[in-house]
Amino acid sequence: MVSSQQELQRIALAEFAIAGYTGTSIQRIAELAGLSKSSVLYHFTSKEALLEAAVSPAIDRLDELLSDLEAGGLGADYRATFIGQFVDFIFDCRQEVHLFINQGPSLVGLAVIDRANGTVRRLAHYFADSTSNPHDKMRFGIALGGSAYMLCTADNFEMPLESDDETRQALVAIMSELLAPVRAD
Predict the structure, then answer these.
(1) Which of 12, 42, 43 is nearest to 25 (CA)?
(2) Are residues 101 and 149 in contact, defined by beta-carbon separation less than 8 angstroms?
(3) Are 103 and 42 in contact (CB under 8 A)?
(4) Residue 138, Cβ neighbours under 10 Å: how many?
(5) Which end of the chain is more exposed for a tag (fewer CB within 10 A), N or C?
(6) Where on the phi/psi map is residue 46: left (φ > 0), alpha (ψ -120 to 50), or beta?
(7) What ranges are recorded for DNA binding (predicted)?
């Protein structure tokens, strides 16, 4: 039986990521948590409130990461810091990122998802606006979106990854290459 709101959020987030938000019911979350439906609703007034509580910390963290990027710019010094922080973010928030990537477009209208979509769009625009050529825009999109998608869906596709340390090092190295400015020769 679940003993805290935080554990209930963790269970709900896992179920939202696996079964989808629309495919998950409060009753199912209650069953997984070993609680009654009324106990879940005592802590969270609705499924949307539970989703908001579960994903808001990740949105806040991504928003802060993006604000730091906007302040620090894409110079070599800050770029390395950003890449490390972004990889840490997608590692720490795999289920939330999975939800944003795979369900964000279909859940438009839910306030917390609209907020997540806005933050992701802001990140995409930042990188798209930092270059004028389509080649770099594609590299930036592949670096950010591809790394997030690969890491967050590996479990669903039963694609075993190396250890977290090895995978993190590989992602940082690949993203560093993809996000490095291209020199015109």
Answers:
(1) 12
(2) yes
(3) no
(4) 12
(5) C
(6) beta
(7) 25-44
Spatial separation of the C-alpha atoms in residues 71 and 33, rounded to whole Å: 42
Full DSSP string of 9-23: HHHHHHHHHHH-STT
Return the closest-CA partner of residue 42 out of 19, 85, 8, 74. 8
pLDDT in tens, 59-86: 999 999 999 999 988 888 888 999 999 9
Residue 157: per-residue pLDDT? 60
CA-wise closest residue to 26 among 10, 3, 50: 50
φ, ψ at 113 (rounded to 5°): -75, -40
- Using a CB cutoff of 8 Å and minimum separation of 24, what contacts does 61-67 make? 61/89, 61/92, 61/93, 62/89, 62/93, 62/116, 62/119, 62/120, 62/123, 63/119, 65/89, 66/119, 66/122, 66/123, 66/126
pTM of the complete model? 0.88
